[in-house]
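Researcher: Quick test of sequence recovery. Tokens follow.
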């Protein structure tokens, strides 16, 4: 009774703001233990929109989609006990729904063929658009992503959950989740590019939200599905609730899942027998000794040379292995995660060159006191899971270690065994033969590899070589804004940042690529006594891009519905590290700007920035044009001043006043008296209606504009300012009056 009561209370908590929401895993447990139909209905309500949306994308027929939808939850009701990670029911349902929809489509095509009506399949009005051609393969390619990338897309983009909710469900930090989601969209874009070129991670995100959005599930359908699925799970007939066709469809999917499992088990048993027959012995700590003959697994991995369809993926995958890898957290032995301190003490490194590897460790290896193993590596990326064999000499005998592996960008994971190849990426207390290793590329290795690509220009290769050294950079000097000074500005400096800066605009594509490199550098600052900060490579790269381009890059995001703040959120490139997952959008913005302005002169680029949406870029452009005494810049500044002051809808603010004074000062520095009328207009505007008294920086703004008149040769400017103060300064408090007089004293020295 107490158990029932506690469950009721917890379920009620879902309806109370701030109440503790019951998890998917708890709902599954409740359904399995008590045959709780209400718990199952909640699962249908949560995940039904995603499932129905998938079925509609593949089947393009409303009735067929609802049949596949119900059959999917029938399978869940029967197979719920077999789900090991119950907090990720959504991911499991996505896979089952995809199989069910394919089976429904195949059955319908077969039926239509028999009826000699194999024309175009019936379609309902689901809304065609540019992405319609990709909808049939979207879920197929999504299903091929690793779980850590697939699940964030399913939960965030297909089920519409917030990043915070998704991070809590997957038990990972929100920043980590955002990074995985961004990378998942990029990976999915690359896969979909085979069907449609020119896709980016941002485009995929937009497509997922607009074309693959969750479908609306009618409330009656939720109740009927839950009731019928409960009956189906217990082996009872669901007549009167759903058609027999749906139950038959569910039985067909269950049968297919069982056959697939049996095939995999049979293959593993046969392979295990073959491996056992090849006579592989155990070697403590790292590898197994071979009694005789070449392991059959090695022959399988080698493949036939004339099978180009297999050899090409092997060569491409092996190319990604090249370089040095360092042991990273995440490995395990006997079911226990290896502590970070132990990883550090072991000092494992794994280097691959061609088809040869060198494995070094500070630990003692039986038969090799130097702690170094060298030999050949053979991989087969065509297998599932992917396989790898490490063959080397130990005590004069040839030994082969059998592995399965995953290679994801700069992370390599493999499970190593002596006697038989592992089946999954985990170790257990019962099997001391298994060891799981996780590796990260050595710092800078990614960019060293990139520099060796044959399709690059010499400048691009040189840029990658310098980027590979950025993690070694150590800066400490602070400027007036509290930012680090990343450039020495010395023409002969050999510092990577200075070399890249001298390369100029041509290396922006390579620098933009490095914006996702969050490797810590040796730069540590305390920001004038505040908390110490370790700078990442991409933060240094961001500031270098700003220096080279002469401008900042900005992302603007509209507020979400219901948000307290209704103003658009602005994120600058300087703030890159504060918003994980924004790297892709910044890369696109930078590359778009580079494509548009790479052939323009510095003056043309600054003139364009005078009309930029980001005020800091407008200010910096004006200052540059003034300091470089640009004649073309004078014309652009004149047009800008006139357009602002002629605008009857100009929204006045201290920022607008400061912008106008900056333009007046720049015109003064250029020194062409043709700009005098506009400088005068600015001064009169600021002096009128006591605008010069608004805000803490208003005096600076006023005197900056009047200084432009002095630079253009105007006389008696100090007297004009004195009269202005005498007429309108009486209402200022004593401190402000003294401040004005200090500015006036400085003006007398102009």
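Model:
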């Amino acid at each position: 009774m107490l158990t029932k009561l506690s469950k009721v209370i917890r379920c009620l908590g879902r309806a109370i703001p701030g109440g503790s929401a019951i998890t998917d895993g708890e709902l599954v447990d409740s359904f399995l233990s008590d045959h709780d139909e209400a718990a199952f209905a909640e699962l249908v309500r949560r995940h039904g929109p995603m499932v129905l949306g998938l079925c509609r994308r593949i089947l393009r027929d409303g009735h067929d989609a609802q049949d596949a939808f119900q059959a999917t939850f029938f399978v869940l009701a029967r197979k719920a006990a077999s789900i090991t990670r119950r907090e990720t029911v959504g991911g499991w349902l996505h896979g089952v729904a995809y199989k069910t929809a394919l089976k429904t489509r195949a059955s319908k095509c077969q039926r239509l063929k028999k009826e000699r009506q194999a024309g175009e399949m019936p379609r309902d009005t689901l809304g065609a658009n540019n992405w319609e051609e990709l909808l049939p393969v979207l879920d197929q390619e999504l299903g091929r992503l690793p779980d850590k990338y697939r699940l964030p897309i399913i939960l965030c983009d297909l089920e519409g959950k917030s990043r915070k909710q998704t991070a809590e469900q997957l038990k990972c930090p929100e920043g980590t989740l955002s990074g995985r989601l961004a990378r998942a969209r990029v990976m999915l874009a690359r896969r979909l590019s085979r069907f449609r070129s020119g896709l980016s991670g941002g485009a995929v995100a937009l497509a997922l939200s607009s074309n693959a959005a969750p479908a609306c599930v009618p409330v009656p359908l939720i109740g009927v599905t839950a009731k019928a699925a409960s009956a189906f799970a217990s082996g009872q007939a669901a007549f009167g609730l759903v058609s027999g066709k749906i139950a038959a469809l569910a039985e067909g999917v269950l049968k297919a899942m069982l056959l697939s499992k049996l095939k995999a088990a049979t293959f593993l048993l046969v392979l295990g027998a073959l491996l056992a027959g090849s006579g592989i012995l155990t070697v403590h700590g790292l590898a197994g000794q071979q009694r005789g003959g070449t392991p059959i697994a090695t022959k399988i991995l080698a493949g036939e040379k004339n099978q180009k369809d297999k050899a090409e993926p092997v060569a491409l995958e092996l190319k990604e292995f090249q370089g040095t890898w360092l042991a990273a957290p995440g490995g395990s032995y006997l079911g226990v995660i290896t502590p970070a301190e132990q990883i550090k003490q072991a000092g494992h490194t794994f280097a691959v060159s061609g088809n040869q590897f060198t494995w070094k460790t500070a630990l003692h290896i039986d038969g090799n006191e130097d702690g170094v193993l060298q030999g050949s590596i053979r991989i087969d990326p065509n297998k599932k899971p992917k396989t790898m064999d490490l063959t080397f000499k130990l005590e004069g005998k040839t030994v082969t270690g059998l592995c399965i592996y995953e290679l994801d960008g700069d992370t390599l994971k493999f499970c190593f065994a002596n006697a038989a190849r592992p089946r999954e990426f985990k170790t257990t207390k019962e099997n001391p033969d298994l060891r799981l290793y996780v590796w990260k590329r050595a710092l800078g290795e990614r960019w060293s590899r990139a520099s060796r690509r044959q399709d690059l220009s010499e400048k691009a290769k040189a840029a990658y070589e310098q980027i590979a050294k950025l993690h070694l950079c150590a800066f400490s000097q602070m400027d007036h804004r509290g930012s680090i000074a990343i450039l020495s500005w010395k023409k002969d400096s050999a510092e990577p940042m200075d070399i890249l800066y001298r390369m100029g605009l041509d290396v922006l594509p390579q620098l933009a690529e490095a914006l996702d490199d969050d490797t810590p550098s040796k730069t540590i600052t305390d920001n004038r006594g505040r908390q110490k900060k370790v700078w990442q490579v991409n933060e240094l790269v961001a500031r270098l891009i700003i220096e080279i381009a002469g401008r900042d890059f900005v992302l603007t995001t509209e507020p979400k519905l219901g948000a307290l703040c209704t103003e658009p959120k602005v994120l600058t490139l300087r703030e890159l590290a504060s918003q994980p997952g924004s790297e892709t959008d910044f890369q696109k913005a930078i590359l778009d700007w580079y494509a548009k302005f790479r052939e323009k002169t510095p003056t043309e680029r600054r003139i364009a920035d005078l009309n930029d949406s980001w005020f800091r870029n407008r200010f910096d452009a004006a200052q540059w044009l003034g300091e470089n005494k640009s004649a073309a810049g004078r014309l652009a500044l004149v047009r800008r001043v006139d357009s602002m002051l002629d605008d009857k809808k100009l929204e006045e603010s201290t920022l607008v006043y400061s912008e106008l004074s900056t333009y007046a000062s720049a015109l003064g520095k250029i020194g062409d008296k043709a700009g005098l009328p506009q400088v005068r207009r600015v001064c009169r505007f600021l002096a009128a209606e006591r605008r010069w008294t608004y805000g803490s920086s208003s005096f600076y703004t006023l005197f900056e504009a009047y200084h432009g008149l002095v630079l253009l040769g105007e006389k008696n400017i100090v007297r004009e300012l004195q009269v202005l103060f005498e007429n309108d300064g009486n209402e200022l408090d004593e401190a402000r009056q003294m401040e004005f007089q200090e500015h006036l004293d400085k003006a007398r020295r102009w």
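Residues 1-20, 117-129, 274-306 have pLDDT under 50 and may be disordered.
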